[in-house]
Amino acid sequence: MTTTAVTENGAALALDGVSRAYGRGAPALDGVDLVVPRGRFVAVMGRSGSGKSTLLRCAAGLERPTAGRVRIGGTDLATLKAAGLTRLRRDRIGFVFQSLNLVSALNVRENVTLPLLLAGAREGRALDARALAGLDAVGLADRAEDRPENLSGGQRQRVAIARALVNEPEVVFADEPTAALDPVTAAGVLALLRRAVDERGRTVVLVTHDPVAATWTDEAVFLDRGRIVGRLDRPDETAVREALGAHAETGRHLAVAR
Ligand SMILES: Nc1ncnc2c1ncn2[C@@H]1O[C@H](COP(=O)(O)OP(=O)(O)OP(=O)(O)O)[C@@H](O)[C@H]1O
């Protein structure tokens, strides 16, 4: 399946001319168009300050764009009031963010059941079984009763992935989930996201600086000063490094020219 063959209506996520400005300076996002079909794994890349996290926050309904339209599974986020947006984030989106980490007062199993409880599920065996199945899928069923603080960084990210997937969300947003991990542990985390796409038809949008991480995805899009300046299908490491280098060069060149 190619991106171009998919209409916005059938997409898991569609951004249409999305801009986000903070104050009077240059916008952090500047007219971004992005269509992510269901069952696709997309990397958002670009140098520091290029707008990756802003794109993610706007796409996930954590922040309102100043212009343009974001749709998740056909729902235009602009039509939702704050409570509706909260429900959408809770019920239809999965997050694997460094900053939205696990709740230390809860054990691993309780952390995974949290999105289900927040969505109105009742506590009980069925709920626990679902959490345990999710933990089993990330190889951590035997750590269910542990506290997050007793887990390694990689294990915590795997719990975060189990938690992000437990609601069967339409889109999973992951912001640098492997940044603090060694390469082998990072590969394990990325393999889990890949499996969620391949085996469960999930849609994943991953913000990353890491060219190796991008090789796990179906498509890499490159941001520079808030605009999409390039795309690679089935990115390989060399092509990603070249693309990042080329855009960094352009940025430097423009910075000098100014
Ligand atoms: N809340 C905010 N208030 C003001 N400016 C912001 C805010 N958030 C982001 N920006 C600015 O928007 C631009 C894009 O920031 P963003 O965090 O999206 O970049 P990024 O590509 O994710 O960077 P990094 O890789 O360093 O995390 C930057 O110039 C940043 O300073």
UniProtKB/TrEMBL annotation:
CDD domains with a match to the protein in the record: ABC_MJ0796_LolCDE_FtsE
One MF annotation (Gene Ontology) recorded for this entry: ATP binding
Keyword field: ATP-binding, Nucleotide-binding, Transport
InterPro entries: AAA+_ATPase, ABC_transporter-like_ATP-bd, ABC_transporter-like_CS, ABC_transpr_LolD-like, MacB-like_ATP-bd, P-loop_NTPase
Domain of life: Bacteria
Keyword Glycosyltransferase in record: no
Domain ABC transporter: 13-250
Coiled coil: none
Keyword Transport carried by entry: yes
Name used for this protein in its record: ABC transporter ATP-binding protein
Source organism: Streptomyces tanashiensis
Phylogenetic classification of the source organism: Bacteria, Bacillati, Actinomycetota, Actinomycetes, Kitasatosporales
